[in-house]
Amino acid sequence: MLPDLPSLKSKLREAYVGYVSRRAHSQIGIFNEVPKQIVHEGESMRVLRPDGTSDDTPMMRAQAELQIREEEAQTLTHEQRMKILNDLADQMARDMSTKLFSSLSESLDKAGQSVDNRGKPLDAEAILKMFEKMQFDFDEQGRPIMPTLSVGPDVYGAAQAAFEQLTNDPVWRSRLANLMAQKRADWRDREASRKLVG
Amino acid sequence: MIEKLLENWLDRASERSYQPVFVQMLAGDGYKILHSTRHCLLEFGKDVLAIAPDGVGCAFQLKGNPSGRLSVGEFRREIQPQLVQLMGQAPSYPGFPPGPHRSYLVSNGQFEEEVQAAVREMNFSPYPSKVELWGRGQLLSMCTRNADRLWPDEVEDTRVLLELYMLDPRGKPPVQLLDRMLASILKLEEGHESYNRSELVRASTSAAWVTGIAMSSFAEARNHYSVAIAWTQCCVALLGAAVKHASGNLSIVQSSLKLAEAATLDALTALWQEVEGRKSLVEGDPLSDHDIVGWRITTLYGLLTPLAIANADQHLINAPSAEALHRWLMNAENRPSLWGEGAVAALVPWCVWLRKVVATTRPDEEIQALASAVIRANQPRSSSALPSPYYDGEAAMSMSMGLRENATSQPESFHGNSYTACAAMHLLVRTRLKQACKRLWPDFTRLGHRFIDLADEVDYCRFKVRRGVETTKLFPFTYEWSQLQTDTLAEPSCRRMPDALALNPWLLAMWWQAAPHRLNAEAARAFCESLLPGWGS
Question: What does the alpha-carbon distance between residue B34 and residue B255 come to, in Å, rounded to a whole number?
Answer without folding.
Answer: 9
